[in-house]
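User
Please review the sequence:
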Amino acid sequence: MSRAERIAENEALCRDLNKAKDGWLREGLPVAGFRCECWRLDCFERIRLSESEWEEVRSHATRFFVAPGHVATGTEPEVEEVVKTYDHFWVVEKRGEAGAVAAERE
């Protein structure tokens, strides 16, 4: 498995864990806490998202929300790109091989 595939698999795992919690938003909470979906399995940062923020990221199979600065560095440029920034989280999009893995795991 390539490094790009491992990065995408790690982020998809975090996304899967977060999907189990998205019901909190549907129960009327204004925001809910989710695990950072960065490439590092040892990351335990929590990100508070509103329902609209959650839906914005989830509307793209290749996008993930990460804590500011939690971007895979030292990798090929096509692996991951920051596509939007907020004060409390950034949205990254997987590219190339990593994007294909992320979309497949959706």
